Amino acid sequence: MLRDKMLAVMEEVNSEAAERHELVQTIALALLSGSNLFILGAPGQAKSFVVNEFRKRITGAKQFERLLSRQTDEEALFGRLDLASLIPGAVPAQVLEQDGTYRMLRQELAQAAEDFRADPTDNAAATRMQALIEKLEQYRKGLSLLHGGTPMTITAGKIPDAHICFLDEIFKAADGLLNSLLTALNERRYTNEGVTVDIPVISFFSASNEMPNFRNKEEQILAPLYDRFQLRVVTKDVQERTSRLAVLRNKQGGHFGEVKATFSLDELYAMQAQVKLISVPEAVNELMDDVLCELRREGITVSDRTFFGYGPVAQAAAWLAGHAEVQSEDLLQLKNYLWNEPAEIEKVQAVLTRLCDDPLRTRLEELLAKAKDASGAFNDAPDGQKARALVQLSAGFAALYREWQTLDTAAQTDDQRRQAGDALAALEELNRRAHEACSFTPSPLAQLAVLQSAA
Q1: Which fold has domain 277-356?
Q2: At a CB cut-off of 8 Å and minimum separation 6, what does 318 contact?
Q3: What distance in Å separates the CA atoms of residue 137 and residue 140, rounded to the nearest whole number?
Q4: 3-state class of 236 per DSSP?
């Protein structure tokens, strides 16, 4: 049921914006995994619109939004110092707002004052009002002794009071804000006047028309900020005519912006709890390690922190797909988790598709490639050394057969079992040709493997 609610919101937001399925999917992944999302695209590509349409469908969540500039100061994002917290005898507003007893006494005093206004000659009402005034004043003094002198920040309506934050053009923030933003984005904490508070933000979102040039000395300071956005999406102008016309019909039909599908903040927390229960099989971790190594061979930097932190995003992708555990195909959703620069997107996509779309087929192809290389080495051996080369080839084929057995066991569908059978047939054919080249009767690979193990 919770998954259905998330999918309904995604579908409704997709109907509001053309060709933004990837962005909508990544917003959902960010919220489910508690990650941050950065969106890069030219002006007018509905970046902010899609984020706002999505987050306004989360009922009960406190939202914070701000367009950042060099003039944006820390108070605008995190709140201002409550001067009452520094004045002897005064009580910080935050303490008064959160104290149940103080609020109850205030309500009783308000009622007593109302009764007295209704009948100023009522001595009992006047006496009761005076008693409540004295009681409230005494209680306020007690709170002052307990909490006075400790610096406090008024955070109502600011980031420390929000569940979802949209910081537009975050790279235009002043240098003085960077440390506070870094701590908030990474640790979900904020420190002011020596007092550290936890921030309940689930996800930070940001959009920009351009990326900093991190090779530029002046802009290198922004690299850590960029690194705190685990997920990244690049938007483009709408490509398809049918998509553009669909949005136009929606707008002109008077249905644009209608909110029908929603889920609550508590339901989002429940979704996150379900996501954490999605298991990650060891085979998927091994496959992800293959992806890591291949990307690094392709010259794409994937930090250890990125690699070790892939789990929550993969679990969120599996949950959205309705899987009880992370499957290889769920790793395809990591495309927007693994790139650093837009130029790397195609390479990342290609590696993920090759290794994760059908990992068994990929590994079978690698196995056959090794078999063909070994056969090529055998064929290149001089005639007088063929017999010795065949002994080496047989040992290699026996090892490949044992590797094939592992892959065959991993096959889960009829198609995968067919792929494994075809690969074995190809191995047997290569083995047969090599033996016949030496005028020997070939033994099946299963027997070769047994003989090699016995030896």
Answers
A1: Helicase, Ruva Protein; domain 3 (1.10.8)
A2: 278, 324, 325, 326, 327, 330
A3: 5
A4: coil
279-288 pLDDT tens trace: 999 989 999 9
Question: Rounded to an integer, what is the distance from CA 142 to the centroid of its chain?
Answer: 46
Q: Are residues 231 and 30 in contact, defined by beta-carbon separation less than 8 angstroms?
A: yes
Given the DSSP bridges, would you call strands 58-59 and 203-208 parallel, antiparallel or unpaired? unpaired
User: How many Å apart are CA 206 and CA 287, to the nearest integer?
Assistant: 31
Compute the distance between CA of residue 339 and CA of residue 402 in angstroms, rounded to an integer. Answer: 36
Strand partners, 264: 59
Cβ within 8 Å of residue 162, ≥6 positions away: 62, 63, 64, 199, 200, 201
Query: Model's pTM, two decimal places?
Result: 0.73
CB 37 within 8 A of CB 27: yes
User: What's the first-to-final CA gap in the chain, in angstroms?
Assistant: 59
* Beta strands in 256-319, from DSSP E residues, in sequence order: 263-264
412 has pLDDT over 70: no
Neighbours of 63 (CB within 10 A): 14
The CATH T-level fold of domain 2-74+162-275 is Rossmann fold (3.40.50)
**Residue 23 token pair:** 């962005």
CA distance 335 to 302: 12
Residues of the chain above pLDDT 90, percent: 42
Task: Return the number of other C-beta atoms located less than 10 Å from residue 391's C-beta.
Answer: 10
Phi, psi of 341 (to 5 degrees): -125, 150
- Token digits of residue 15: 């109907």
Residue count (the chain): 455
For 454, other C-beta atoms within 10 Å of its C-beta total 6
DSSP state of 413: S
For residues 126 and 132, is the Cβ–Cβ distance under 8 A? no
Q: In the beta sheet, which residues pair with residue 208?
A: 40
Assess contact for 43 and 208: CB atoms under 8 A: no
